[in-house]
Fold this sequence. Notes:
Layout lengths: L10 E4 L7 H4 L5 E5 L10 H8 L4 E5 L8 H5 L1 H8 L3 E6 L1 H13 L9 H4 L10 E5 L11 E6 L2 E6 L7 E4 L9 H19 L7 H23 L4 H13 L14 H13 L3 H15 L5 H10 L8 H18 L16 H10 L13 H10 L3
Parallel strand pairs: 1-8, 2-3, 2-4, 4-5, 5-8
Antiparallel strand pairs: 6-7
Helix pairs in contact: 7-8, 7-9, 7-11, 8-9, 10-11, 10-14, 11-13, 11-15, 12-13, 14-15
Amino acid sequence: MYNFTFHNPTKVHFGKDQIKQLAHEIPSDAKILVTYGGGSIKRNGVYDQIAAALIGHSFWEFGGIEPNPTYATLMKALPIIEEHEIDYILAVGGGSVVDGSKYIAAAACYKGEDPWDILAGSGQITQALPLGVVLTLPATGSESNAAAVVTRDQDKLSFVSPHVHPTFAVLDPLTTLTLSERQIGNGVVDAFVHIMEQYLTYPVNAMVQDAFAESLLKILISEGPKALANPQDYDVRANLMWCATVALNGLLGAGVPQDWSTHMIGHELTALHGIDHARTLAIVLPAVMKVRKEQKQEKLLQYAENVWGITDGDADRKIDDAISNTEAFFKQMQMPIRLADVDLGPDSVDAFVAQLEAHGMRKLSERRDMGLNVSRQVLEAALA
C-alpha cells in the first residue's frame, strides 16, 4: 500500500427527513443561492422541504443546470450572485447540479480574466463560496469530494480543488423514489465504474481498500436490479445511495493506484454525441477490461473470484467469465454495452481518438502506458 493522507471534510446527514438539518448547517445571516436542474424538485416535494427548512434565511434560486452542465448555463449564475451579494450556495440535485455548483462557487471568487481558465488548467482556485448539497440522484459521489466536470462545446473538462469540497451533504433516500428507470440504471453503473477505476489496476497489498471495493461492487450487483423491480423499496435505495457516496469520497482510492481511462474515453463520447455519462462508461469499461487483460490480470482474477465467485477454469476463462458477467449486469440495468447500441459505428472512432489527443489524453491508465493506439483498440473493441 502506498503512503497517503486521507481527509474528508464533508459532514453527511443521512436518512429520512434530514433536509431539516439545513436550518442548522447554513448560517442564519447567509445569502443563499439554491441551484437545481430541470425543476423536478418542485414537483416531488423536495423544494417545499427546503423552503421550510430555510425559513428565516434569505435565498434566491438558479435553476436549469442540465446533465453534463455547460459553461454557458453556469456563467448565468454569476450576475445573480453579484447582484444579491450571495455568500453561500446550496446545490439540490444529482451530480451534474453539484458539479455545476462547484464551478459556480469557484468562478464567483475567481480573480483572473476568464473563469474558463479554471477548467482549461491555467487558472488557480484560491477561494470559493461555501457549498452545501441536498442529493436527489445518487451516482457521482460529487456530494463529498472536491472534483467537478463541466462541458463547453466539445470540451468536457474536469477540475479538482479543496476549496469546492462541500461543507455538508444531506442524503435522504426518500428523495430518490421518483427517479426514472434510466436514472436508476445510470446511477448504479456510474458508482460501479467509479469503484472499478480505483480497484481494477494492479495489487499493492491494500487489503482494506480491496475488501471495501469488492463489498461495494457486490452490493451494487445485488441491489441495483432490485431498485428497478421495486422502486419504492426504501432500504434498497438507502444502500445504493450510501454506496454511491462511499464509492468516490476518497476512501477507496487512498493508497492505491487509480486508472480513470474509462472515464477519459467516456467523456469524449458524451462531448461529441451527448450520450449519458454512465452509459458511456458501460460501453467503455468492458472494452478496457478486454484490451488490458494482460496488464490487469492479477486484479481481474481477484475480481472474478471475490466479486463474482468464479473459481472454475484457467486464468483466461475466469477473466472472460468475469467480463461477461459485468456486461450481463450492465444489460440488466438497462444500459448499452456497445457503441452499436447507441448507433455509433467504426466511422466514429477517429473522431474520438482525435478528441483524446486534443485534450492531452495521450498516456492513460494506472501505469500511464495507454497511448492513443491502445485507446483506439479499446474503442474498436467496444464497437459491436
